[in-house]
Automatic annotation (TrEMBL):
Keywords: Hydrolase, Membrane, Transmembrane, Transmembrane helix. It holds the Pfam family Peptidase_A24. Residues 84-196 form the Prepilin type IV endopeptidase peptidase domain. PANTHER family: PREPILIN LEADER PEPTIDASE_N-METHYLTRANSFERASE-RELATED, TYPE 4 PREPILIN-LIKE PROTEINS LEADER PEPTIDE-PROCESSING ENZYME. One of its GO terms (molecular function) is aspartic-type endopeptidase activity. The chain crosses the membrane at residues 12-28, 49-69, 75-94, 138-160, 172-198, 210-229. Belongs to the peptidase A24 family. It is an enzyme of class 3 (hydrolase). Its EC number is 3.4.23.43. This is Prepilin peptidase.
Amino acid sequence: MTWVDAPGAPTWFVLALTVAGGLVGEVLRRRLATGGYRLDDESGPLPRVSSAAIPVALALLWALVAWRFGPLSEWALTPAYLGFAFVAVALAWIDADVHRLPRGLTRPAYPMLVGQLALASLASGDWDALRRAVVSGLVLWAVYFVLALVAALLGSGFGFGDVTLAGLVGLATGYVSVSTTLVASYAAFLLAGVYGLVRLVLRRGTRKDDIAFGPWMLVGLLLALVVQVRPFG
């Protein structure tokens, strides 16, 4: 089954998940607004973002997931990406704030995502997609691990939290296609580079500033899911 010939999700399904995403996003916003994820040495004001940003972001993401995946794999694929979207929004917020991707979020996301993708493969019988997701996750994790080692030697801010997140990105994109993983990876570096360049041009940063890379990895993943129209497989 391809993106093109897959049956479209009913309008009511997209609307229902949009509303649900907004409600869940509001719960997440209240949790993040406490700053409870911060460590003792992480102080300062919380990010100055509209209080509606998180609920709106999760509502839009859940709408996108409903629209893109809908009835695929007997409706069993959608929950995998709904859960990942929730984790992604929380990680993007935290990384943008304190330049850290908490293991308390990234590590539990692995069994959650793999388990849900396995259920989708069980429902559809497409075990090749699950194998491709696992391989993509392992390869992307390994690539980022090497990059993190090089960055550590050079004194760069590229951290091992990004390595853990890379494995999740590989799983989420690899289930769709290898090209989706490649697009997501390329987009992440491109967007982060453009962001850094804009900061320099506007004189809001220097070349030595560390840039939170996690949010750009997640935005790259989102763009890859939107633009890809290749088949599963």
